[in-house]
Design goal:
Blueprint: H1 8-14, H2 25-36, E1 41-47, E2 50-55, H3 56-72, E3 80-84, H4 89-101, E4 104-107, H5 114-124, E5 128-131, H6 133-136, E6 148-151, E7 160-161, H7 162-168, E8 183-188, E9 198-202, H8 205-216, E10 227-228, H9 236-248, E11 253-254, H10 263-272, E12 277-279, H11 282-288, H12 294-298, E13 304-307, H13 314-324, E14 328-332, E15 341-342, E16 357-358, E17 364-367, E18 380-385, E19 394-395, H14 399-404, E20 406-407, E21 410-419, E22 425-430, E23 435-437, E24 440-442, H15 444-452, E25 457-467, E26 471-480, H16 488-499, E27 510-513, H17 527-532
Length: about 525
């Protein structure tokens, strides 16, 4: 833990990791608290119009029972257990049970379609699948190595019922001993730049996320803290940045009711459930900007707001402080190496348009292709020095792809950023997203942020379109706010708006309008699909 958040520079200089020889994520996130205070609330689950508590003691016992039930069905250390469930008690119980067995959890997003699910089940070689009826309906065919299917919605031919297995099993802890580098979790990359890859993590990954959450959520835990995220718990942002880290801090987590994300419902939930801390991806925050005077209308009382997944931008940063009543602390990471850059407004480590600084414990650099450090203001790749507790063990069955992620002892992200004179890191986009126009290398983030300042624009994505003269031109794909209609006059108005605020070569020479942008399950814009449409 970061013992004293008094001075950032002293904190970074003094920080040291202490990784125990024996360590299990389930013990850290649940069983330790259950032993000390079994009635302590761990979750608040929706029930009618209210939210009711579920204790650490309940989660510990239920996960012991499910771990023993899985073991009785032949699931053992190292086996992959796929989890296809929405936010719920059952998804968390399953994760904890898998960690207690020394098996490997493979979270799958409820939004995945048939092809996405089939790919991940086949690639991981999962021996068990825990799902609900809606998820099982997407299962085109049962992979031959999938020995066990468990449904939250009850038994069926060839399918075990979740509650039946839990109720019949022993409540005694399995007693499996794990170390920090033992595999625990495999999260597939979002697939924004190609086929998804399984990023395999050891149990130690939670230690780094707990520290990151402590930093970006202003010394969490604080009295009255209560966490919520609309993000699917199958994503690293939902599972590690939010749920497991909050539980390890002793902070209860509010479970999102089923249904699509809706900005007004989100504000209403924060009030009804007494939410004090949130993790909301930038795309969702930009959608929430359309709600007028949310604090006055809904009366929520937030202590901290965190965001990650894409660049937040200065416009949304400033809106957040005014509309939400607190600073939005942005942070950065990848599925393979997460929560390494962040902001903490209370410490004075926050700047509009910047992602933040390297979180204590992480050695983050901006480098050229040869590994040398970039100059101040020079665009380069974000790299993190190994070893690091949040760094993945490897890609599943892809040793060549794993090797390509390293340059010596540096993990190279493929994401581009600039470092300013005060040590702030400004995320620019993926290497694939950078636009080359008339000899300039242009990151999309700055242009997108400028577009968001126009009153007609709700969400913006910028890509390069091939051009025989300029190599590429800047193309903007926009979702408009309610009340605005696309047309030539609006296109010219937006182009002039950007041209007068940024460099002349950065304004979008082409603008198209869409009802919604293509997003990954983690809320990131899939720019390659937009480029394919050029």
């Amino acid at each position: 833990m970061l013992a004293n958040l008094g001075d950032f520079d002293r904190l970074r200089a003094a920080f040291q990791w202490r990784i125990p020889a024996r360590y299990n994520m389930a013990t850290h996130a649940c069983d330790g608290w259950a032993a000390r205070d079994p009635s302590r609330p761990a979750l608040y689950v929706p029930q009618g119009a209210d939210f009711v508590p579920v204790s650490y003691g309940h989660l510990a016992e239920a996960s012991n029972r499910f771990a023993n039930a899985l073991a009785a069905k032949g699931i053992t250390r190292g086996d992959r257990v796929a989890i296809l469930l929405p936010q719920s008690i059952e998804v968390l119980v399953t994760h904890l049970a898998v960690y207690k067995l020394g098996a490997i959890a493979v979270p799958l997003a409820s939004a995945f379609g048939v092809e996405a699910l089939t790919f991940r089940l086949n690639d991981s070689g999962a021996r068990a699948l825990v799902a609900d009826a809606a998820g099982l309906a997407k299962l085109a065919e049962r992979p031959e190595w999938l020995d066990l299917i468990v449904s939250r919605d009850g038994p069926a031919p060839g399918i075990e019922g979740f509650d039946d297995l839990v109720s019949r099993a022993s409540a005694t802890a399995p007693g499996i001993i794990t170390g920090p580098d033992d595999p625990a979790l495999m999260i597939y990359t979002s697939g924004t730049t190609g086929a998804p890859k399984g990023a395999l993590h050891g149990h130690r990954v939670l230690i780094g996320h707990v520290t990151g959450q402590h930093f970006t959520h202003d010394s969490m835990p604080a009295p009255g803290d209560r966490m919520w995220t609309p993000s699917d718990w199958a994503w690293a942002g939902g599972l590690l940045n939010t749920v497991l880290s909050a539980l390890a801090h002793g902070v209860p987590v509010v479970v999102q009711p089923p249904g699509r994300f809706d900005p007004e419902s989100a504000f209403r939930l924060m009030k009804t459930a007494g939410v004090r801390n949130v993790f909301i991806p930038p795309t969702a925050l930009k959608m929430m900007r359309a709600v007028e005077k949310p604090k006055e209308r809904f009366g929520f009382n937030l202590r901290t707001v965190g965001t990650a997944g894409e660049a937040l931008g200065a416009e949304t940063f400033e809106w957040g402080r005014a509309a939400l009543g607190v600073a939005v602390n942005e942070f950065y990471g990848q599925t393979e190496c997460n929560y390494v850059i962040g902001s903490n407004a209370r410490l004075g480590v926050a700047r509009a348009g910047a992602t933040g600084k390297a979180i204590p414990g992480h050695d983050v650099r901006i480098i050229r292709t040869d590994g040398s450090l970039c100059d101040i203001g020079e665009m380069g790749q974000i790299a993190i020095r190994a070893p690091d507790p949040v760094m993945f063990l490897r890609y599943w069955n892809q040793p060549e792809a794993t090797a390509r992620k390293y340059l010596g002892d540096l993990f190279v992200t493929g994401d581009l950023a600039r470092l300013d004179a005060d040590g702030y890191i400004h995320f620019q986009g993926r290497d694939d997203d950078v636009i080359t126009s008339s000899g300039y290398r242009i990151g999309p983030s700055e242009i997108e942020d400028c577009l968001l300042r126009h009153p007609a624009v709700q969400i913006a994505a910028v890509v390069g379109k091939p051009d025989p003269v300029r190599t590429e031109i800047v193309k903007a794909v926009l979702v408009l706010r309610p009340g605005y209609k696309p047309g030539p006059e609006l296109v010219k108005e937006i182009q002039d708006f950007v041209r007068t605020r940024l460099a002349a070569y950065e304004y979008p020479r082409e603008i198209v309008f869409m009802d919604e942008l293509p997003l990954t399950t983690t809320g990131k814009v899939i720019r390659r699909l937009l480029r394919d449409q050029t």
